[in-house]
Amino acid sequence: MNKYIIEAQNLTKDFGSGNGIFDLSFKIKKGEMIGFVGTNGSGKSTTIRSLIGFIKPTSGSSRINGLDSWEDSDKFIKNIGYVPGEISFPDLHSGTSFLKNQAEFLKLKNLDKANELIKILQLDPSANLKRMSKGMKQKTALVAALMADPEILILDEPTTGLDPLMRHNFINVVKNEHRNGKTILISSQSFEELESTCDRVIFILNGKLIAIANVDEIKNRNIRDFKIEFNNKDDYLKFKQYNYHILRDQEQYFQVTIEVLKSDLNKLLFDLKDLNVKFIAEIKYTLESHFKRIAKEEFGEEELYV
Ligand SMILES: Nc1ncnc2c1ncn2[C@@H]1O[C@H](COP(=O)(O)OP(=O)(O)OP(=O)(O)O)[C@@H](O)[C@H]1O
Ligand SMILES: [Mg+2]
């Protein structure tokens, strides 16, 4: 059997005027948790909707469990727990009746998992479906998506609009599903959220795949970044003669940002010993700074893109 459970091959949905997604290719292994991050309108939801066969690609294709997303979605759709970005529930009077309907649709007899999730998420499903707050709707949609224990979870910005405590509970539920071997695709505006949960994160901008980051590689990077400011220009210039790799040079402040191999840290301290240093601060390398750096290399202006 194909070890990739989700595959996109040159997936393109062109809405015109430069909007849509263009030539996206990626593969997701069984059991992986993958994040999608990108600014508003970058194409996260369009990619997700194409993958699950809700929209027909203009060109290229995608597959779930080896089945074409557009041609064969009826064959795999019940194996997917999907929480859409904009939740619109059917016209039913309560969360409970919605969940019951969903269970019937899925031919699900055992509601233990649904009840367990309702407890963890502190959801009152008897509330009026239409009057539920955004957070309650998201929780109801998550219960509906998870209750039949599907093999794949596709969650489009599921935590937007949740308060920090609920976000935490919600993410714990998803992490637990990941631990139990589920394949998960989650989009988010939060780099931190994806960094703390995903194995890999796909960065999408203006409908194009800019980079795929491996979160472990970012966490275990063998390079560290430091910002160093000197008290005078002479020492600033002397330091520059040591030829460290300079990421940012701000002469007006006698300041440099450098990257150093972990194994060269002692050398750095030695070189700084006789120089008049005003401050030295480590800059933590995160998923966010990683993608910002890539966006800057690609487009020049980092602030515009992240
Ligand atoms: N049905 C549609 N018809 C025309 N244009 C569309 C359609 N759906 C999406 N778009 C456009 O495609 C682009 C990508 O939209 P998409 O909803 O995929 O972005 P997103 O990354 O999910 O954004 P957000 O973070 O706001 O949810 C946007 O420019 C959007 O306006
Ligand atoms: Mg979206």
Summarize the structure in short:
Residues 302-306 have low confidence and may be disordered. It is built from 12 helices and 14 strands.
Description:
It is a single chain. The protein is of the alpha/beta class and 306 residues long. It folds into two domains: 4-218, P-loop containing nucleotide triphosphate hydrolases (Rossmann fold, 3-Layer(aba) Sandwich), CATH 3.40.50.300; 222-284, Alpha-Beta Plaits. It is built from twelve helices and 14 strands. The strands form three sheets. It has a six-stranded mixed beta sheet, with helices on both faces. Strands 2-1-4-5 form a four-stranded antiparallel beta sheet. A hairpin with a 2-residue loop joins strand 9 (200-205) and strand 10 (208-214). Helix 4 packs antiparallel against helix 5 (134-146). The radius of gyration is 24 Å and the shape is elongated. The structure holds adenosine-5'-triphosphate and magnesium ion. Residues 44-45, 85, 156-157 line the site of magnesium ion.
